[in-house]
Amino acid sequence: MVSRTPATELDFASLSEATYRLADQPTHLGHKVASALGVIEEAIERYGTEHIALSFNGGKDCTALMHLVRAALHKYETSHSIDSRPLVSLYVLYKRSFFEIDGFVKQSVARYNLDLVEKQGPMRQGLQSFKQDYPQSQAIFVGTRRDDPYSSKLGAFSPTDSDWPQFMRVNPVLDWTFEDIWAYIHSDGVHYCCLYDQGYTSLGDVDTTTKNPALLKDGKYQPAWSLAQGCLERSGRSSASTNSPSSGSVLPIPAKGADLEQC
Questions:
Q1: From the CB of residue 88, how many other CB atoms can be counted at a distance below 10 Å?
Q2: pLDDT value at residue 237
Q3: Can you give the pTM of this predicted structure?
Q4: Three-class SS string for the chain?
């Protein structure tokens, strides 16, 4: 569901019910959703609602994750008779970002009741500033997938490097694919950034991101989810994007100090 209209807060009860109903289905997507919810629930149990945060930059992976986190949070808050609270969300800014992404992020703040924290890069500086302002945040949900660069050896719970600001990175969609993300977005009616309708499959900043040439058919770019080969997802990203914030994750790779690059 493309986000183009003014946003109002979602009905988290209905959102949660639909998501858990999907997780109960004996299908490939149902198993993926159930596994992701299990990781999120474990993180909430470990750290409590007051010590978790979300890495959110408007990309498809963290958008799907945001929906899943809200579903699990509602279930937890309801079962523990806790009032719903804004979800602290970190947005590390590009020097030149797409206005469509910025607009979608602002809509998501209202739609998902986010406490959005905007920090300027570079990455280490942004994370350090966030840690200083929100020292209670111990774990951050990240939209990392295993087929993202440098992510093949990550686990569902992966701490940051010792020389970076200390967080536990929680990766609920780690074993999801490009196809899984879009199947979930469409199945659960998740709002997403309109750039994905215009031929973009991986979003970075304006200077390093173009429409995916694999989606050009008869002179017109097809939407992101029609990409036949998920391995071509990043074909619209230049090598210069390696050192920029990404639209999925903003946290460093263990033992490498590099930034995750997915959207």
A1: 22
A2: 81
A3: 0.89
A4: CECCCCCCCCCHHHHHHHHHHHHCCCCHHHHHHHHHHHHHHHHHHHHCHHHEEEECCCCHHHHHHHHHHHHHHHHHHHHCCCCCCCEEEEEEECCCCCHHHHHHHHHHHHHHCEEEEEEECCHHHHHHHHHHHCCCCCEEECCCCCCCCCCCCCCCEEECCCCCCCCEEECCCCCCCHHHHHHHHHHCCCCECHHHHCCCCCCCCCCCECCCHHHEECCEECCHHHCCCHHHCCCCECHHHHHCCCCCCCCECCCCCCECCCC
Question: CA-CA distances (angstroms) from residue 62 to 80, 144, 253?
Answer: 26, 8, 17
**CA–CA separation, 69 vs 37, rounded Å?**
8
Residue 138 in tokens: 């111990």
Tens of pLDDT, residues 107-153: 999 999 999 999 988 778 888 999 999 999 999 999 999 988 778 88
